[in-house]
# Entry
Amino acid sequence: MQTFDYLDHTTTSPIFERIVKRMHLDLPLLLALVLLCGIGLIALYSASGQNINVIEAQLKRLSVGFIAMLFAAQIPPRFYQFSAPWLFSIGLGLLAAVLVIGDINKGAQRWISVGGFSFQPSELMKLFVPLMVAWIPMSQS
# Structure
């Protein structure tokens, strides 16, 4: 398990330290992510003609993303290691399924519709390919 020694020499509260350790988060990476999201929101506010509704919609999306990140951080790394080849195989199968059952939209066949819900398997592969790339050297050692 990863330790957070850099927290021992700071003036953060013990409660905050326990939360970060318990949530399995890397504090410098989390702070960099929050900083980048803040810069993105400022840029979006400027580019949208200072429309606060656009910022509120983006904040909702960011909230969903942060919640998903917190859930993903709680999954043990061994699960990712075990599931990488399976997820990659499922992703390849979904990419092949697009050729057969995919919806054509704007001249391209990219989407799969399941019960009123549409998704692009290529978006799932953006998650599965790095898992597989990390799994390959792990499986050889």
